[in-house]
Amino acid sequence: MSKSLGLPKPLSRASGDRVDWNLLRTFHAIAQELSISRAAARLNLSQPAVSQALKRLEEQLGTALIERKGPRFQLTAAGIEAQRLANDVKSHFLQLDAALEATSEQVVGNVRLLSINGVSCEAYDRALARLHRECPGLALEITVLPNDEILSALEQRSQPFGLAISRADYPWLAQQRMTREHYRFYCGPEHPLFGQPGITVDRLAQEPVISFTSDLLGGTLNSLAEFRHRHGWNGPVIGCSANSQEVLRLVLAGFGIGCLPHPVYEQAQHLLWPLPPEEVGTVDISLMWNKEQRLTRVEARFLQALQEACQQAQG
């Protein structure tokens, strides 16, 4: 490693050979999450184990990889470079898995999928059922994350697939639309407008709102923000979450009105009162992957099954 990373002295080749790649993998999760606790949850490890792994890796490399600032921390220059190298190493291991799998006749292995929460899609469900019947050796690991974190992981090629909202066409991104969600505003039984007929759009202009964290102009739920801006809704945002179930929780608690996708309304329709207009906006949910990622045989089979199910559903 170069002196520009702030190392006390360059590592010899023998020192580099002694770096434990399991420690580097743990650091990769820490660097992505910027949190020991979230990295521990992601890796199914205890927080002390993750902290100890970080300490051992720093000892092996001879430099600090993170700089603590109270309860938060940021990557040092060496940490940023180590994260880049960890991404490369992980990508090479995935390529090795794909090369080795090519010698096998069976479709066996793990598929990792990052997903936003609350996706409702019959084509997706049918594809999973078919995959399980035809490829019983396929194991699926689904991790729920915010939309932006999914796109970041796909860009870095640290995960093969994401099921998320995408409004932009990135040059590295391939996507297959899975379903379209329709959004509408609702209030819960604790809200004074619950059960009232004849409510107009103008009547809601100053109502407190529960929003999604991505419900911003230019965000992934841009259409919801555009609606409020277009109709002059200036009510305060009194709560927000990236998770639709938590937005629902705040709406039911009476914090304010909230815009929810139709599948969430179907789950709790007896507790929600629809507000005008009938449709605020639509959002496409897509299966996404990095065009430059080399897929294993089992990952390619997973992609094929979902694409075929979507093509049949969309006719």
TrEMBL record:
<keyword id="KW-0238">DNA-binding</keyword>
<feature type="domain" description="HTH lysR-type">
    <location>
        <begin position="19"/>
        <end position="76"/>
    </location>
</feature>
<dbReference type="InterPro" id="IPR000847">
    <property type="entry name" value="LysR_HTH_N"/>
</dbReference>
<protein>
    <submittedName>
        <fullName>LysR family transcriptional regulator</fullName>
    </submittedName>
</protein>
<dbReference type="InterPro" id="IPR005119">
    <property type="entry name" value="LysR_subst-bd"/>
</dbReference>
<keyword id="KW-0805">Transcription regulation</keyword>
<dbReference type="Pfam" id="PF03466">
    <property type="entry name" value="LysR_substrate"/>
</dbReference>
<dbReference type="Pfam" id="PF00126">
    <property type="entry name" value="HTH_1"/>
</dbReference>
<dbReference type="InterPro" id="IPR036388">
    <property type="entry name" value="WH-like_DNA-bd_sf"/>
</dbReference>
<comment type="similarity">
    <text>Belongs to the LysR transcriptional regulatory family.</text>
</comment>
<dbReference type="InterPro" id="IPR036390">
    <property type="entry name" value="WH_DNA-bd_sf"/>
</dbReference>
<keyword id="KW-0804">Transcription</keyword>
